[in-house]
Structure formats: C-alpha cells, structure tokens
Amino acid sequence: QVQLVESGGGLVQPGGSLRLSCAASGDIFSINTMGWYRQVPRKPREWVASIAIDGRTNYVDSVKGRFTISRNNAKDTVYLQMNSLKPEDTAVYYCNYRTAVYEYWGQGTQVTVSS
User: Fold this and answer.
1) CA gap 114, 94 in Å, rounded
2) For the segment 29-61, what is each residue's pLDDT rounded down to a tens digit?
C-alpha cells in the first residue's frame, strides 16, 4: 500500500499564497499520477490538478493561472503552489496517488481563505 501525508494548509487572506506538500511512502511504483482534490461540506469532492510521472500537468479551469502543481520524483512528493487565493478556494485539500490498478488518498489539509 501507499501512504500519503499532506502539509502546508492554513489560514490566508484573499490574494495571498500557500504551498501544499504531499509525501508518498510505501510500495511506490515508477508509473504513477499524483494530484490534488478539494472538498467543502455538502459538496462532491472536486478535482483540482494532476501531474504524471513525466511532468505533464492538468488543471481545473477555475485555478488555471493561479495554481501550479509540481513533483519531486526522487522524494515521491507532490506540491501545489496556490497564488492569488480567493474565498471560494476554501476547502479541505486531499492528495491523490494512482496507478493503472490502485488509488490512494491522504488525510486532507484545511485551506481557509478569509479576510
């Protein structure tokens, strides 16, 4: 199995920045995709960004130009740099790891954007 541990969440004012980190450990396969999702109460979990092992990235339209996903393969770690944060970005952010066969989730880290 794979374990994922997120960090970097917190409280920030609108227009501010945060960087989330997610470290993977356990039975890591070379071919994998990592990503970030977010969820607010009474709403479905929303995909935010993903990055493949070769560095190819994808983003949901609402964060394009503001968020940047990256990864350090040597450390099995994925990052989400969040700039120009808006109140609607407030959510619990979850790290995701998947291969062709398996999928794993982190415990979540709270991001609150408020004045």
Assistant:
1) 20
2) 888 999 999 999 999 999 999 999 999 999 999
